[in-house]
Amino acid sequence: MGELKEITLVKEGELHRLVLDQVTNLESTEYSDKVDLSRGEVLSPSGTFDSIATATNCLECHRGLEMHDMTGQRMEGVRMGNVAGKVVLITGAGAGIGRATARMFAAKGAKVVVTDVDEAGGRATVDSILSAGGEGLFLTHDVSSEEQWTRILADAESRFGGIDVLVNNAGIYIIAPLADTTLEQWNRLFSINVTGVFLGSKHVAPYLVKRGGGSIINMSSVAGLRGTAGHTLYGASKGAVRIMTKDIAAELANQNIRVNSIHPTYVKTAMADYGAAIAGLTLDEMGERMVPLGRLAEPDDVANVIVFLASDESNYLTGSEFVVDGGGTSIISV
Ligand SMILES: NC(=O)c1ccc[n+]([C@@H]2O[C@H](COP(=O)([O-])OP(=O)(O)OC[C@H]3O[C@@H](n4cnc5c(N)ncnc54)[C@H](O)[C@@H]3O)[C@@H](O)[C@H]2O)c1
Q1: Cα torsion 26, 29, 33, 39: sign
Q2: Taking each helix axis from N to C terminus, what angle separates 96-107 and 299-310, rounded to the nearest 10 degrees?
Q3: Residue 234 appears among annotated catalytic residues
Q4: Does 74 or 90 have the greater pLDDT score?
Q5: Cα angle value 293/310/250 (rounded, 5°)
Q6: Is 168 in the pocket of ligand 1 (CB under 6 A)?
Q7: Is a pLDDT exceeding 80 seen at residue 63?
Q8: Do 310 and 78 meet the contact criterion of CB atoms below 8 Å apart?
């Protein structure tokens, strides 16, 4: 990520703060009167474009701004609808998919709130974000606690001024035959995988409304789409997340809040290690057997989809399910 600078300007009575990414040779104040928001153009003082930011996002109106050169061509490297400047809260980001997602958001200029029950893991995620020049905050958080949701959302708002995106990622995985699955396991797993998503969606929605809308991304699984032996408990929880996503999407659509679910196959984290150990296979063997593309997912394969669902480029998508499985669910291998 390049150096990140901000320009604040008032245009026709409206305050706009622009995040400039990958700035070269730019003294930001020189540009304050050079930005024509009505046309979405940024002009350099010299009229040339060799020292212009390659991406902007307005922190006030949350729009990506496209930049054009003097001939009207869109400038190379300009990204519309990116996530720069958005405040993104990710649960369970002290490891695995959540950590990779937090790092990717930060690298793209988002302000990332990392939450986890694992304080050491969560702090390590934020340390890696800060040392790469990004912005991040860690908050200790058990997603099954309503009181803790209330606290961490208020803390996140007071630090970053609001919340634009919630990634309900935290989850646990138990594989057990039906006969051996205990009620205690059932209640514990549901309190995290399902109640956590319910509480997060319920309590973050008013914060998103204050920003004029936002995106909620819920981590389900291919186990929420298809049955697997030993997965009564986990599969039921991910199936609940799948349909809860659509119910909440229906309810919040008129407030410009989008809600979508993600359904990965095995992703190379501690969870896949656990599944592979039970199956008596290596991760490579599982990838070859289960996935038409021949490999298990990397955490970044999932993070890429999450970042897209948080960006303005996905602003017509809600109530949908995004299968990230290298073709495993939809392709029959013969
Ligand atoms: N890895 C996979 O193969 C895979 C596949 C499909 C879906 N998923 C889902 O993706 C999500 C992330 O999985 P992962 O593979 O990164 O797992 P992981 O075990 O590597 O990380 C999960 C994180 O969630 C945290 N966590 C656990 N309980 C919590 C709680 N009560 N409150 C807050 N944080 C808590 C853990 O401390 C950990 O840091 C989960 O919802 C999982 O079900 C994973």
Answers
A1: positive
A2: 50
A3: yes
A4: 90
A5: 100
A6: no
A7: no
A8: no
Q: Where are the domains of the chain?
A: 5-65, 87-324
Ligand 1 atom closest to residue 168's alpha carbon, by position in its atom list: 41
Spell out the residues 6+ positions from residue 102 whose beta carbon is closer than 8 angstroms to its own.
88, 90, 93, 112, 114, 125, 126, 129, 136
Q: Is the pLDDT of residue 73 over 90?
A: no
Three-state DSSP state, 96: helix
Atom of ligand 1 nearest to the CA of 296: 3
Q: Catalytic: which of 31, 173, 207, 234?
A: 234
Domain spanning 87-324, CATH architecture: 3-Layer(aba) Sandwich (3.40)
Beta bridge partner(s), residue 218? 168, 261
**Average pLDDT for residues 159-178, to the nearest whole number?**
98
User: Do 292 and 332 contact (CB within 8 A), yes or no?
Assistant: no
Confidence grade of residue 25 (pLDDT, cut at 50, 70, 90): very low
Strands (E) across the chain are located at 5-11, 14-21, 35-36, 41-42, 55-58, 64-65, 87-91, 111-116, 135-140, 165-168, 214-219, 257-264, 321-324
Angle between helices 283-290 and 270-279 (to 10 degrees): 80
Mean pLDDT of 270-274: 97
Query: What residue owns the CA closest to ligand 1's atom 8?
Result: 221
CB 323 within 8 A of CB 330: yes
